[in-house]
Amino acid sequence: MEKPSFFVTPGYGEFLRDTLHYSQAVKIGNRVETSGQGGWDDDLQIPESIEVEIEQAFQNVERTLATAGAGWEHVVHVNSYHVGGFPAVVNETMSKLYRQYMPNHAPIWTEIGVAALGLPTMRIEIRVTAILP
User: Fold this and answer.
1) Handedness of CA 54, 55, 59, 61 (dihedral sign)
2) Per-residue pLDDT averaged across 98-118, rounded?
3) pLDDT in tens, 60-85
4) Radius of gyration of the chain (CA)
5) Which string of DSSP letters, residue by residue, matches the chain?
6) What is the count of structural domains for the chain?
7) In angstroms, what CA-CA distances link 78 with 74, 104, 127?
8) Phi and psi angles of residue 77, each rounded to the nearest 5 degrees, phi first
9) What is the number of other CB atoms lying within 10 angstroms of the CB of residue 24?
10) Are 78 and 107 in contact (CB under 8 A)?
11) Considering only CA atoms, which of 94, 96, 65 is closest in space to residue 80?
12) What CATH number does the domain containing 99 carry?
């Protein structure tokens, strides 16, 4: 088995590594796994709009994948964790962004409702698996 390589997203990832001691991504061979990425900015602030929060989470996944040499085009599996249920706007926004970020394939996806996430104002967290060619 190949040795794992760990990656930290510049900005918020460095803060989270230093304060909570975890990495944002790991690469083993051609497989990249991310930790859950929220819709936060580099100051860990969450937008008021759920649509903007979801969009920011997608951007944070993209930033994190890039640290390990991957992109959305390599994503094969998505887990999304949701506080507050699944109002229509959540699935509409998620599917719109799937089509935007992954126009040439549809990954497998599991949506999970949870009571809370890592920050009190978070409503979404996205974790992905990517396979590099």
Assistant:
1) positive
2) 98
3) 999 999 999 999 999 999 999 999 99
4) 14
5) -PPPEEE--TTHHHHHHHHH---SEEEETTEEEE--EES--TT----SSHHHHHHHHHHHHHHHHHHTT--GGGEEEEEEEEES---HHHHHHHHHHHHHH-TT---EEEEEEES--SSTT--EEEEEEEE--
6) 1
7) 11, 16, 6
8) -145, 135
9) 25
10) yes
11) 94
12) 3.30.1330.40
Are 67 and 9 in contact by the 8 Å Cβ rule? The answer is yes
Q: What is the pLDDT of residue 1?
A: 72
Tokens of 39: 């819709």
Q: What domain range includes position 58?
A: 5-131
- Joined together, the tokens standing for residue 87 give 């109002």
